[in-house]
Amino acid sequence: MIDDLNAFVDELRNIGLPIALSDRMAALTAVGLLGTTRRETVEATLSATLVKSGTHLGAFRTVFDIYFARAGVTAGALADGVTALSSLTDDDLAAVVARAVAADDSLLLRLVAAEAVARHGGFEPGRPVGGTYYVIRTLRALDLGKVATALATSTAEARAEGRMDVLAAYLTDRNHERRIGEFRAEVEAEVRRLVAADRGSEALARTLRKPLPEDLDFANASGADLEELRAAVGPLARRLAVRLGRSRRDHRRTAVDLRATIRRSLAFGGVPLDLQHRRPRVVKTELVVVADISGSVASFAGFTLGFLRALASQFAAVRSFVFVDGLTEITDLVRAANDLEELIDRVNAESEALWVDGHSDYGHAFRTLADRCAGQFTRRTTVIILGDARNNYHAAQDDALARIRSGVGQVFWLNPEPRASWDTGDSIVSVYAPHCDEVLECRSLAQLSGIVEALG
């Protein structure tokens, strides 16, 4: 058991979970004190001692399933011990899934999952295919869509007959969806158990290893990954607002308040032991975001627009601009859009980010911004530029960025490319860098979080 635990913790560290030696010792001690090897209890104990962030739970559960695979559930009997699952037809097996979902019976779902994988997965020891292959074969044979439809029909009939009100029917449907999702997870867990038994836990873990959400490269993110990234952007935007505001307050020199100092000194016989300062006037930070949404940063662009929405909800004044080779302000679009999809559609339909050839032209974008808006910016303004600085060999026009910088408080540039790629090909980061307070690599949420903490 100790060897399994150590290998399990090593794999969690390999994929990036922050686990110190003290955490490992706490986990070993806690499991030793349990007095039981019940799987759910062990999982909860290890989760409590090793996982520090909710975003890491998915990775933890996957690795746990690999190293502590479920004890083989032999689908010999139903939960009531009467009917043998192996003797059922496929239609009857699907009906048992519906029964288990309706009855909220986790044990029965686990039994059926094991039988379904044994019957339809087609598992072949030693065959070099991913576990997903067996999962898809199993779920396709059971047709869970038909199961879901049958359950929804049953709920609708109960509502029509007056046996359920609207709220009860809604909650029942949501519970059915949750349980069907649980059954899919049971099928995946059973396949992982079989593959781990065949190839070994460490080999399986290596094939399934993937970055944590905060370490995922924006450029390599799938649609589902981007949804997770966008959901995590809101808290970062709030922290950024706090950090920038604190920076301005902490660095502002304030004059001594003579009256307050004299009043306080009366308690000490007129000796002014404690100088009192005037409270600084709270000045809310104005934020200007300028983002490249060209094809070279296509994956980053979706994240960028989500970031703009999050920032707009946290700052008193945010002006948002996007560009390819033309620049357009989308401040009103960001405020009016009900969700990210609507924002993306409206930006594509209504913005003038495309001007001539559809290739990034940072120089023209900065020149346009300086001509239109430089006089409207103040020392309270912080400018954030999002883009890779690949100018497609157009004129840099860095004097326009210098003009913008001269009239604002701070300029930060967040670049989604690895630092090793800067100033290669048509990248001209070093041309623009002198006009920025900082140019920072920003390829993941972890890096963005570090940037937010560093500001101020």
Task: Please tell me about this protein's structure.
- The protein has 456 residues and is of the alpha/beta class.
- 56% of the residues lie in helices and 7% in strands.
- The protein has helices spanning 2-14, 21-34, 39-50, 57-67, 90-103, 106-121, 131-142, 144-160, 166-199, 201-208, 223-250, 258-265, 298-312, 331-336, 340-350, 362-373, 398-406, 429-432, 445-454; strands at residues 286-292, 317-323, 327-329, 381-386, 410-415, 438-441.
- Strand 4 (381-386), helix 17 (398-406) and strand 5 (410-415) form a beta-alpha-beta unit.
- Helix 1 (2-14) packs antiparallel against helix 4.
- The longest helix has 34 residues, at 166-199.
- The protein is extended and about 85 Å long.
- Mean pLDDT is 75; it is low at 71-83 and 247-252.
The assembly state of the depicted protein chains is single chain
Main sheet record: 6 strands, mixed
User: What percent of residues adopt helix (DSSP H or I)?
Assistant: 55-70%
Number of helices: 19
Number of strands: 6
- Strand fraction equals 5-15%
Q: Whole-number radius of gyration? A: 29 Å
Order of helices and strands: HHHHHHHHHHHHEHEEHHHEHEHEH
Task: From the structure above, extract its key features.
single chain, 456 residues, alpha/beta, 6-stranded mixed β-sheet, 19 helices, 6 strands, 56% helix
Describe what is shown at a glance.
By secondary structure, this protein is α/β, with parallel strands linked by helices. The chain has 19 helices and 6 strands.
Break the fold down into its secondary structure elements and pairings.
Elements: H1 2-14, H2 21-34, H3 39-50, H4 57-67, H5 90-103, H6 106-121, H7 131-142, H8 144-160, H9 166-199, H10 201-208, H11 223-250, H12 258-265, E1 286-292, H13 298-312, E2 317-323, E3 327-329, H14 331-336, H15 340-350, H16 362-373, E4 381-386, H17 398-406, E5 410-415, H18 429-432, E6 438-441, H19 445-454
Parallel strand pairs: 1-2, 1-4, 4-5, 5-6
Antiparallel strand pairs: 2-3
Helix pairs in contact: 1-4, 2-3, 5-6, 5-8, 6-7, 6-9, 7-9, 8-9, 9-10, 11-13, 11-19, 16-17
